[in-house]
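Async update (no meeting this week)

Hi team, since we skipped the sync, here's where things stand on the single-chain job. The sequence we agreed to prioritize is pasted below, unchanged from the tracker. I ran it this morning and attached the output directly underneath so nobody has to dig for it. Comments welcome in thread, and please keep replies under the output.
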Amino acid sequence: MKRIRIFHITSIIFLLHASIYAQHNIVINGVLDAKNKVISIQQEITFVNTSKDTMQEVFLHDWANSFVSKTTPLGERFSEDFLKRFYFAKDYERGATAIESIKNKSGQTLNFERYNETPDILRLNINKSLFPGDSTTFNIEYKVKVPSEKFTRYGYHKNGNFSLKYWYIVPAVYDTKWQVYSHKHLDDLYAPLSDYKISLTIPSTYEITSEFDQKESLNTNDQTKTIQLLGNNRNEVNLYLEKNSSFYDFRMNGVKLISNIEDNDLMPEMKSVATKRIIKFLKDRLGPYPFDKILVSENDYKNNPVYGLNQLPDILRPFPDGFQYEIKQLKSITESYLEKTLIINPRYDAWIKDAIHIYIMMTYTEQYYPDMKIIGNLSKIIGLRWFHAADLDFNDQYFLGYKNMARLFLDQPLTEPQDKLVKFNKNIANAYKAGIGFKYLEDYLEDDNILADAVREYYINNTLKITNSKEFEKILNKLTPKNIDWFFEDYIPTNEKLDFKIKSVKKRKDSLEVIIKNKRNNVMPVSLAGLRNGQLVSKTWVTDIVGKKKVKIANEDIDKLVIDYDQNIPEVNRRNNHRNIKGLLNKPIQFRFLQDVEDPTRSQIFYIPEFEFNVYDGLTIGSKFYNKTFIRRDFDYRITPSYGFLSKKLIGSAFFQYRDQIADYDLYQIKYAFSGSMFSYAPDLLFRRFSPSVDFYWRPQDLRSNERQRLSIRSVNVFRERDDNNPVETPDYSVFNVRYRYSDFNLLDFTSYVFDYQIAKNFSKLSTTINYRKVFLNNRQLNLRLFAGAFIYNDTEKDGDFFSFALDRPTDYLFDFSYLGRSEETGLVSQQIIIAEGGFKSQLDYPFANQWITTLNANTNIWKWIYAYGDAGFVKNKGISPKFVYDAGVRVSLVADYFELFFPVVSNNGFEINQPNYNEKIRFIITLSPQTLIGLFTREWY
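Output:
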C-alpha cells in the first residue's frame, strides 16, 4: 500500500509541474477553402530557447510541402518502395505550402530559406541573438494545398472529408543541435511540446473531431463557422473534418476515448467494456494519461496495424467476438498513449517506444487471453489443428515476424535510423524484436516485477518531457541485481543473431556435464532446462558463452535437456536446442501435408500435390517432398517425382541448396546448390539435366539499396534420348558456365548488365546483356536493352543452330527457361518468347548467328500500358556477310515482364499487318511461376 501511495503522489506532483510549463506557444488562424482544398493560415509562434546555447536562427518543419513534387525526399521514398501512386499522380492531387511572409513582432520581415534546398525544412534568421531562457515571436502567413489522402491516408478524401496531419508549420526540437529531417512517410515528426490556440473557419456543413477542447460559433453568413481549439503541452495537432462524423466516444477512468475504429458485429456495450479495460491496463502498467481525451483513428491503425491473420476478411474471421476489435484498439490506444506523452526522437531512438508498445501488447494478451492461438479458432478445426501453426500462441507472431528478417539476412540494429530501415523492418520486424527483447530480458531477470517497474518508473519520470532510451537504461540498471550490459551492448545496437546448441552431454554420478556452443559472435545469455517425463525439473541461466562453455547441472533423473524451454529467447534456429538423454532419435521424423511453421522438436518433411503442363508430357501430376517452412532456412530441398499423362512416363526434378551467410554486406552470402530434372523435350523423348553450382552474392551496406551483384559458376550436364527419325550429332553435352550479374532495380531507374562465358567440348562463347529503364518526370518511360555475343571458337555445324545465338527464340540448350513447348516451331506455344539473347519479336530469315550478333531493343510508352517497340541489329554467320535486321510494333504490357503481348507492324519481312496469318505473328510473354509473381507484391517490403 505504501508503494502504491508514493506512486500516486509522485504522479500528481509531476503532472502538476508539467501542466504549468510549456515550451512554446502557437496561435493559428486558418480558413479552409473546401472546394479548392486550400487552408489559408496566419500563424504566430512564440519560440522559447530552453537550451544552454545562444541562437541566431530557428529551424521549422514544413512537412505539408513534402508533397510539392515528385523529387522531394517523400516522393523519392515512395519510389524506393515501388509505390507508383505518388509519382503518377495528377498535379492537383499533390500538396504544397506557399509562404507569403514571415515577420517578427514589430512587423520586420525575416529572411528564411529552404534548408539545403530541402522543401520541407525552413531555416529562419531571427535577426537577433536569442539567449538561454529568452523567447522570440514571429508571424507566418501561408497557404497550404492539402494533398489527396491516397498517398498517406491523410489529406482530402473523395467524399469531401479531410484528415489533417502535418498540415501546419511547427518548430523543430533543439537538444544540443537542431533535430531536423524530412517527411518520408514514417510518421516520425519530432516536434516540441507547445501550447496551441487554433481558430479554424470551415464550411458549416463540416464537423471537427480532435483531442483538443473546442468551441463552435456560427458566422453571420451561415455558410461557415469558426471552431476554437485549445490544447496545452501538445506535440501535434491532428484534425478530422467530416460532413457526417464517423467517430464515437466513451468516457472511462477520467479519460474520454474518441475513435472511429469499427467492428460492426460488436455491441456498443462490448466496445465500451473492452476500451475501459485497455485504459485501466495502461494506467496500471504505465501511469495516468495527462490529458482528458485520447483520439485514435482508423487511419492511424491502418498505417500501423496488427499484421497477421487478424487482418483476414470478416467472413474468415478466426477470432472470438470482440477480440479483433480489442486488439486493434489496444494497438492504437497504446501507440497514441506513448506518442503524445513521451517526447523521444522517433527517427533515431524509436526502439524504446517500440519495445514498451509491443511489451504492453504481449503482457495484455497474456493476462486476458492466455489461451489465444495465432490462428484463433482455426486451431480447433480438424485438419488445421494438426499443423504446428495451430500450436502457436498469439504472441508467437512477434518472434516469427523478427525471425523472418533474420533468416533472410535482412535484420537491422534497433538503433538504425528509421529512414535507413527496409520497409518490413520499419513496419514490423524491428518493433517486434524490441518487444520480444523485453520478454527475453524479463525471463533472464527471473523476476517479472523488475522490468514492469522499470517501464512504469520510466514513463512516470519522463511524461511530457524530452527523453531518450539512455534514461530507461539507467532506471533498469538501478532496479536489477544482474548484469544487463549484454542487452544494451549486443542486443539493441547490433544485428547479431542468437543461436545456441547443445554440443555434448556426459553423465556423471550425480550430475550432467553439458557443453553449450554459441554459434554466433556475442555474449548474450541462454537458459538450460532439464525435463523429466515432459515436466520441468530445473532451469539454469548460462552467461558469457564465447565459443563453447561447460555447464554442470544436477542429474535428477533428467531424460531431456532443452535450451530456452520457455521460448522467450529470439533465436534464429531452435532446431538444435533439444537433446534426449535417453532414446535413439533426438527428433522424430514427421510427415506433414502442406507447408507449415517450423517445429523445432521434429524433423519435418512436407508433401503436396503438384500439377504442371507442357505440350510433350501433357498434364503432369506429382508430389513434391520438401523441407521449406514459411520462414526460410539455410538448407532446403525439394524432390518432385511426377507422371506425364501424355508421355506416359515418370519424370520429375530434385533440388538441394545451402546458404552460407558470411557477412552483412559486400560479399555477404555463398550459395551451394545441386539440381537435377527429367522431362520431355520433344514427343516421346526425354532429357536429363544435372547441374552443380556455387553462387557468390554482394550487396551494399545500405540494405534499402536494391544494388546487387552475383557471380555464378556452374556445370550444366544434359543427356537427351536419341530420335532415330531425326538424329542429332550431339545428344549429350556438358557446358561450364560463368556468369556475372549486376543489377540496381528501382521504380524509376533500372540498370543491369550480365557477362556470360560458356565453354564446352565443341564451342566457347562470350556475351553481354545491358538493360536500362528510365521513367522521366513527364511519366514517359524508356526501356533499352543491348545484347552482344560472339563465339571464341565454334565447331558445332553438325548440330545446326542448336548452340547458336538466337535472334528471337533461344533454343535454351541449358534448359534455363520455362518454355511451354521448347521444340515447337508452329502453333500457339511456338509464339511464346522470352526476352533473351537477340530479343526480337518478329521471326526473320536469319533467326540464328553462329559467329556473332549485336542487337538493340527499345520501347517507350504511348498510353499507360501500351508501348511502341523497335529492335535493330546485325547477325553474322560463317561465310555470310553481316545482315542488318530490324522490327517494330506495339507492346501491350498487362503485367510488365510477366504477361505481355507483342503485335509486329514492320520488319525485314515488310509491313506485317497486311500479311496473311497475322495472328501467328503475335508473340507473348507469360510467367506461370507463383514465386515470381509474388515478387511483384513483396518487393516494396524487402
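Quick observations from my side:
The domain at 350-490 is CATH 1.10.390 (Neutral Protease; domain 2).
Residues 414 and 430 are 6 Å apart (CA to CA).
Reply here if anything looks off.
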